[in-house]
Design goal:
alpha/beta, 5 helices, 5-stranded mixed β-sheet
């Protein structure tokens, strides 16, 4: 058996028990195992991974794992173009999808007018918004800085401005929207 040290980032941690999340964990595999085999053992799919580093070098899914390799797995990047440093097949940045609190309906409308997918359910509770954010992988737009922590959200952006045009600028800057 070979020992592989694995670190999962952000939402990929969902496949780990609470005690192993956001930590380097050890997994044992048979000699000759490839990165794809590790993904299977971890319960992950290739489509969920945007960047793989083994011993700080980008590799593809066919990489042959070696004893004591340090593997870092990163989820889809929403606002950072990594294609020039990734050995994985080239694919475009995913188009971010949003959900906004009802007091951000003007921002939601501005995003929608520019072709971005932004839900703004009227009168939805924070619990309901957090649930939709998690289930549909939507970025929750809010003014409440504690919302991400309270609901253990990976996708949450806290706006500072009260003015819809300035809020739009904040979102465009943070997520590099064109």
């Amino acid at each position: 058996m070979i020992a592989i040290h694995v670190r999962l980032y952000e939402e990929l941690n969902r496949v780990l028990p609470d005690t192993e999340r956001k930590k380097t964990v050890a997994r044992r595999l048979f000699p000759g195992a490839k990165l794809n085999d590790l993904l299977d053992v971890m319960g992950l799919r290739q489509a969920e991974i945007d960047l793989v580093l083994v011993n700080s070098q980008s590799v593809d899914f066919e990489y042959l794992l070696q004893d004591e390799d340090m593997v870092s797995l990163y989820p889809e990047f929403e606002s950072l173009d990594i294609h020039s440093v990734s050995a994985l097949p080239e694919r475009p940045l995913r188009k971010p999808r949003f959900i906004a609190q009802s007091n951000l309906s003007s921002l939601s409308n501005l995003l929608g007018q520019r072709g971005y997918d932004c839900l703004c359910p009227p009168q939805a509770s924070e619990d309901a918004l957090a649930s939709i954010s998690k289930q549909e992988k939507r970025i929750l737009l809010t003014h409440n800085p504690s919302l991400a922590v309270t609901h253990d959200l990976d996708r949450c952006f806290c706006l500072h401005s009260e003015e819809p045009q300035e809020q739009l600028w904040e979102v465009k800057e943070r997520f590099q929207l064109r």
